[in-house]
Amino acid sequence: MTTENLKIIKLEVKDVRFPTSLEAHGSDAMHTSPDYSCAYVILKTGKGTEGHGLTFTCGRGTEIVVKAIHSLSHLVVGQVAFEIFKDFAGFWRSITSETQMRWLGPEKGVIHLAAGAIINALWDLWAKLLNKPLWRLLVDMDPEQLVSTIDFRYITDVITKEEAIQILKNQQSKKEERIAKLTAKGYPAYTTQVGWLGYSNDTILELCQKYLELGFTAFKVKVGENLQNDINRLKLVRNAIGYDKQLMVDANQVWDVEQAIEWVKKLSEFKLHWIEEPTSPDDILGHAAISKALRPLGIGVATGEVCSNRVMFKQFLQADAMQFCQIDAARLGGVNEILSVYLMAHKLGVKVCPHAGGVGLCEMVQHLQMWDYVSVSGTMKGRVIEYVDQQHEHFLHPTFVKDACYQVPKAAGYSVTFLPETIEKYEYPSGSEWERMFSQGLFHDPRKVLKRMSSA
Ligand SMILES: C[C@H](O)[C@@H](O)CC(=O)C(=O)O
Ligand SMILES: [Mg+2]
C-alpha cells in the first residue's frame, strides 16, 4: 500500500431522507414531524477504499448542510489519508477554523455539522484501512497517539494533553479484561421507541410490552406539550413497565427555566431518572438552576444532543448543569472533539449516556461508548446508550442489540455505510421512494415548487 494511492481523490455528498413524519416516528414536543435524514459523505481514495460519514438532520434544510460540505471539500480532497491521521488535531483545526468559513460558526450550527460529517468519514476510512471497527481502533491506540487527534484549544483550563494521556494510561492494565466482558455481554441500552410524542396510547402500550419482552429495563418518553397529557401518558407507561424499571423523560427544549422546574415537580410522582433538555440547549446557568431544584427529588438533568461544541460541554460540566452528558456523534465536529468531551466528563465525574435518536446515531455512538468503557471511565455503572429502532435496515453493518445490550461491532469502520439500494430509494428528491411518495401526494415535490416559482 503506497501512500500516494491513499490520496483522497473525491468527496461525494448525498441528501438522504426517510419519511418518518408519516407515522410520527421520532416526534417530540419541538420536532413534531421530523423526517429522519442525513447529509452522507463518501470519501474515495485512489486505492478504492471509501470512508463514509454522516450528520443527522430532521428533513428540510439537509440541502444546506450538503452545500456546506461541498464548500469544505477542497480542504480534504487531494490530501493523503495517513498524512491527515499523523496530525489529525491539526487537520481538525484547519477544517473547523478555515479562515473564511469559520465566520458561519465558529464551531456551531450548519458549518460544524458539515465538518462533523467529513471528520466522521475520515475516521471510518482510517478504521477501514486498518481493518478494525472504530471502537477497536481507538482502544488500540497508545494514549499519546489518541490524544494527538484532539484539538485542546479552549479547554486547557479543564483538561490538558498531559492529563488526558494520564487518564488513558491509568486504564491500560485492565483493557483486555474489559474487552472480554464487553464482547461477552455487550453494553446496556435504553429505549426511546416506546415514547415518541405522536404515538397513540395503544401504540405506546404495545411497544412497552415489546421492549419488556426484549429485556429492556430503561425507557424514555417524550413530554412537554401538555401537562395533563404527560401525566396520563406517564401513568400509562408506569402501569405497563412497573416502578422497578428506569423511566426518563425528554422535553426537547420547550420550557423556560422556572416552568421546567414546576412542570417536572408535577411529574415527579412517576419516579423519573432524568429530565432531558428541559430548556434552551444554550442556557448553561438555566440547566444548573434546574439541576439544583430537582436534585432533592432524585431527578437528574440530561442534555447534549444539540450542544454545539466542546466549549459548551466544558461549561455545562463545570457548572454542574448536566448530570448525564449526552454526546451526539453527528452534532460535534466528529470523533476528535467527542473524545475531548468524554475526557472532560471523566475528569469532572459526570456520566456519559450518548444520544442516539436519529439516523445512524446508534451505529456510531456504540463505538464511542465502548471505547469509554475500555479506555476512559472503566465502568458501565449508571451509564446506558440510547436505542431507537429505526433505519438500521439501511446500513451494511447495522447495530445489533441483544438482551437489551449493544453487541460489539465487528466489521471494520464506523458502521454507517449505507446499502446501495437505500441511496437509490431515499436520496432526496430523486430517489425512487420519494418519486413514488410525490406522485401519491404524500409530500410536495420541491422541484415542482421551484419550477412554478421560476415560471411565475
Ligand atoms: C427529533 C429527534 O427524534 C429527537 O426527538 C430525538 C431525541 O431527543 C432523543 O432521542 O433523545
Ligand atoms: Mg433527546
Explain what you see.
This protein is α/β, with parallel strands linked by helices and 456 residues long. It folds into two domains: 3-140, Enolase-like, domain 1, CATH 3.30.390; 166-406, Enolase-like C-terminal domain (TIM Barrel), CATH 3.20.20. The chain has 18 helices and 13 strands. It has helices at 62-72, 81-86, 88-96, 109-129, 134-140, 143-147, 161-171, 175-185, 201-213, 227-241, 257-267, 284-294, 310-318, 335-347, 361-376, 420-426, 432-439, 446-455; strands spanning 8-17, 37-45, 50-57, 187-195, 218-222, 246-250, 274-276, 300-303, 324-325, 351-352, 385-387, 401-402, 405-406. Strands 4, 5, 6, 7, 8, 9, 10, 11, 12 and 13 form a ten-stranded mixed β-sheet that branches. Strands 1-2-3 form a three-stranded antiparallel β-sheet. Helix 11 packs parallel to helix 12. The longest helix has 21 residues, at 109-129. It is globular, with a radius of gyration of 21 Å. The chain starts with 7 loop residues before the first strand and ends with a helix. The ligand C[C@H](O)[C@@H](O)CC(=O)C(=O)O is lined by residues 26, 28, 31, 34, 58, 192, 250, 252, 305, 355, 357, 386. Its cofactor is Mg(2+). Keywords: Lyase, Magnesium, Metal-binding. Belongs to the mandelate racemase/muconate lactonizing enzyme family. ENOSF1 subfamily. It catalyses: L-fuconate = 2-dehydro-3-deoxy-L-fuconate + H2O. It comes from Photinus pyralis (Common eastern firefly).
